[in-house]
Write a structure and sequence with these properties.
With 355 residues, the protein is of the alpha/beta class. It has one domain: TIM Barrel, CATH 3.20.20. Helix content is 49%, strand content 11%. The radius of gyration is 19 Å and the shape is globular. The relative contact order is 0.14.
Length: 355
Amino acid sequence: MSELKNDRFLRALARESVDVTPVWMMRQAGRYLPEYRATRAKAGDFMSLCMNTELACEVTLQPLDRYPIDAAILFSDILTIPDAMGLGLYFETGEGPRFKKSVNSVADMDALDVINPEADLGYVMDAVRMIRRELNGRVPLIGFSGSPWTLATYIVEGGSSKDYRKTKTFMYNEPEAFTRLLNKLADSVALYLNAQIKAGAQAVQIFDSWGGALSHQAYLDFSLAPMQRIVNQLITEHDGRKVPVIMFTKGGGQWLNAMADTGVQALGLDWTTDIGNARAQVGDRVALQGNMDPAILNAKPERIREEVGYILSRFGKGNGHVFNLGHGVTPEIDPDNVGAFFQAVHELSAEYHEN
């Protein structure tokens, strides 16, 4: 594999010195880009795009050709694992992800098997290998998966949900069976992320999109504990480099200390948590990633720049900050505003890294 020409992102995750704060953006390969929309139209639908190695590689690289981004993230979906478990993922226009089968009983939960990533999700590993080859050391490649709790909500609800009523009912009524489901998902995620690392991912992120919907103890038992189970199984070094893990719980600001205790290298923050307060809490145990409100990208470029400056000032001088949004970029955003965002991060952050 080629030597990295830009390793700011990995250096920041290791809390090492950098010249400017590295930046990438969740969903950076997405519908806000006209070139992405054209490639998706060529693929036919979202899952066909995910499963086409060349096109998945193409859309992963598109934002890097347009912007000065410090990391690429694999183009895929968090729901590939339940799809590989035989639940039949599909996407309804305007409704988001759906499953042909949902898990409606303890017997349904127990019937699910841990996945074999190369056999069941070989198309993802093929994409990782091609993306690494095409990147040719430009920037690091991030692999990812959904968290067990987040995957469980989709599996039980049969798709998206506003209140996770069915999932929480299962969780509270059948905690032992629900924990078995979470453990199967955790073991599948660990195998999946390790396969991505072996294929070429240089860092991995666990997306706990819906952990913030849980009560305090339920989060610790049913979201954080299975994520800890994943972290315990992950490859920590590959190709002579450490492989950092980023844990991101949307709405998880109250659990930062517990998350930092898992042994991950970085915590992702959504925009509801002040990054300065988060840094004071976790100290030098982990790097922090985040955390601008994606909606600010709808504002004028000067307002975007002002917000970037504010977040940088709240983190303050020193190492261990990867700039990102607090959640994914949304489809209606003007690509020029995204360019202003990336430019502002690099231009305004230099003063925080003076030696």
